[in-house]
Design brief:
Structural class: alpha/beta
Strand order of the largest sheet: 7-13-12-9-10
Number of helices: 17
Order of helices and strands: HEHEHHHHHHEHEEEHHHHHEHEHHEEEEE
Number of domains: 3
CATH superfamily of the largest domain: HUPs
CATH architecture of the largest domain: 3-Layer(aba) Sandwich
Radius of gyration: 25 Å
Strand content: 5-15%
Helix content: 40-55%
Length: about 350
């Protein structure tokens, strides 16, 4: 959103894809060493991340078209001795040990590998490379990146005698104190293959009342004046505006409208809606029937069979809008409608369509 906002004000965004640094891992905010991914997985991740950024930074102005760079291009061919002589000499161990990302791991006696310890130098070197090759003047990151960004600013000053800048934003937390981007089901993905547009819409629709105005300012393109005019509106109307604006930005206006329509049909009229999360089940799985507890846990509708039992006892689970009371129920083919679809609901906000394929 920072890049999107700056782009709207006439700046050209540079998106740094960490194909090189991903092979090492950033210790910032981490209590243990990151899992090292395979080369194939790294390339796949980079390609998918680029696709998402292109949605947010789409522009018809060629001068503001985002520049995508992969730091493996220069990090992958570094000469170690040359790098130590030209770049390493600008860093002191004393200074590096003073950063919170390092101190946290040392204080908790979590092993910090020499490989990870090098990360801050490599991130600083990225800034230097982008400044030289693309005239990059400012690096943006979360507040946990402050030390790494300052390193880059100082390296460029020492190496090239140029003035550059760093901008960090607070790590986003909800009014409840939880980290932004997590739900009961897990992370909120921007890739539609990992999270449907409906689930994405619902994430914003379920925003805590205390966070709605803040998120309208941070995660939509609405002008501040417009948001101020909306402040006295009904809170549920504001949540729908937030959900529509955020979903339109990522998935398009038609997907947002479809998600809103599905939610309305599901919650207000007890229907199924045509955009609910869909779980596909093979015909062979259901031919002889399947225990409801197995069905719920295997498809991650409930986290475990114990959770499913508790939900059934508290009348929180419904099948085709009918309360489920029997935890020993066997789901048969005749439970599905003529379109081979079965609707399962947990509480008021979680709905799934099971479809036989």
């Amino acid at each position: 959103m920072c890049l999107r906002l700056l782009q709207k004000h006439g700046h050209q965004p540079i998106v740094l894809l960490g194909g090189g640094t991903t092979r090492i891992g950033d210790p910032s905010g981490k209590e243990e060493t990151r899992k090292i991914l395979s080369e194939k997985q790294i390339e796949k991740n980079i390609n998918n991340i680029e696709k998402v950024f292109k949605i947010y930074l789409k522009t018809n102005n060629p001068k503001l078209k985002p520049i995508f760079v992969n730091n493996y291009k220069w990090l992958g061919k570094l000469n170690y001795i040359k790098f130590l002589r030209e770049i390493g000499r600008h860093f002191t161990i004393n200074k590096m040990l003073s950063f919170d990302s390092v101190k946290l791991r040392l204080d908790r006696e979590q092993s910090l590998s020499y490989m990870e310890f090098n990360y801050m130098i490599l991130q600083a070197y990225d800034f230097l490379e982008l400044n030289k090759a693309k005239n990059c003047l400012m690096q943006i990151g979360g507040s946990d990146q402050w030390g790494n960004i300052v390193n880059g600013v100082e390296l460029i000053k020492r190496h090239s005698s140029k003035q550059v800048f760093g901008l960090t934003t607070p790590l986003i937390t909800l009014a409840s104190g939880a980290k932004m981007g997590k739900t009961e089901k897990g992370a909120v993905w921007l890739d539609s293959k990992l999270l449907s547009s409906y689930d994405y819409w619902q994430f914003w629709r379920n925003t805590d009342d205390r966070d709605v105005i803040k998120f309208l300012k941070m995660f939509t393109d609405l002008k501040l004046k417009k948001i101020e005019e909306l402040e006295n509106e009904n809170i549920n109307k504001l949540k729908i505006i937030l959900a529509n604006e955020a979903t339109s930005m990522l998935h398009g206006k038609s997907s947002a409208a479809k998600a809103e329509k599905t939610a309305k049909e599901t919650f207000e009229s007890g229907g199924s809606g045509d955009d609910l999360p869909e779980i596909k089940i093979k015909k062979s799985e259901i031919e002889n029937g399947i225990k409801i507890l197995d069905l719920l846990s295997a498809n991650k509708i409930m986290s475990s069979k114990s959770d499913a039992r508790r939900a059934i006892k508290s009348n929180a689970l419904r099948i085709n809008n009918e309360i489920l009371t029997d935890e020993k129920k066997i789901i048969q083919q005749n439970d599905f409608n003529s379109e081979r679809v079965l609707k399962i609901s947990f509480g008021k906000k979680k709905h799934y369509l099971l479809k036989i394929i």
